[in-house]
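User: Hey, quick favor. My workstation is busy. Could you predict this chain's structure for me?
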Amino acid sequence: MRSIELFSGTGGLAMGLQQAGFEHEALFEWDRDSCYNIIYNINRGHPCVKNWNVFQTDVRAVKYNGYTDRIQLVAGGPPCQPFSLGGKHQAYNDKRDMFPEAVRAVREVKPQAFIFENVKGLLRKSFASYFNYVLLQLQHPEIVKNKNMTWEQHLELLEKYHTAGHDNGLSYNVVFRLLNAADYGVPQSRHRVIIVGFRSDYNASWSFPPVTHSRDALLYSKWISGEYWEEHNMKKPVDIPFSDYQLRAIRQSVEETDMPLLRWRTVRDAIGDLPDPTDLKAAARYKNHNFRYGARIYAGHSGSKLDEPSKTIKAGAHGVPGGENMVVLDDGSVRYYTVRESARIQTFPDDYLFSASWTESMRQIGNAVPVRLAKAVGESVISQMERMMKNAK
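Assistant: No problem, here it is.
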């Protein structure tokens, strides 16, 4: 299955989709450092990215003529700053809103399906009308906004077209869901909106992949079976932070289900085998595992606990609100995640390297889609596409 990706960043979404079975013909990204990092790994011969073609360019300048009707999937993560809870929430008034370009790519490429990812801030009540506008554009990409139209006027036109039940022209059946990456085996609590569309003439019947991991399963392994502590060669803590009633509910949730789930993965699961980065000799055995000074706790700024999924890795360094890029160690002290640790929490493989400074690498990693989440969604989509193609024969 051939694909192209817009706003590829440092390649998290693309890598997950590649692992799912898609073959990327082109990746488009305007940020020079992100492009350079992918090219750095291509030149190293990384098996997952060695055949990628990366173009550093403004997506608004891309011509899709050569891809029309040849590409099965368009994917990407339109810049999220217009909708981010940490941003100014300007949405359609923000020049960084690239959803119109995502729609243009769909219109011109005419893929069988698309996958777009964005922050959960996209679902804020204040953005409800605009999000509905985004979805309607993706459903009916050929209903183009005229230059003199406001987005509200275009929304009105799309609503009339949609409710009239027109079935001619290019159209997509679109669904979206807010997913937590932890529910798919990513050692991080990271909520993202995933938008998936299938071309209407393919009569797809698809839903988001079922979750594979759960919080209750983690709590069960820690406070009921004790398996979590055994796995890490640790003594089970004496103080149990749950009442008997809560423990019964957890036991019932895990033991009385026909479809048992795996436990959420924790920070310790992800990075516990890495050496202490302050041990420079031991840490040198791993690329990107350099200690960074300066981490500290203050009000509202605390790190991630080792025995829980990490807080959301953010695209920042020292000034990240909430201290998401720090880890709380067993002795209660804190330090910054190393680049390698952050990459593991985002489920990048250890042989995928980051060539820039700590600050720039943390920005790239924080902006990425967790590879494992992308793979889970990608496998579900490609499976549906293969069924569609089989039925079309």
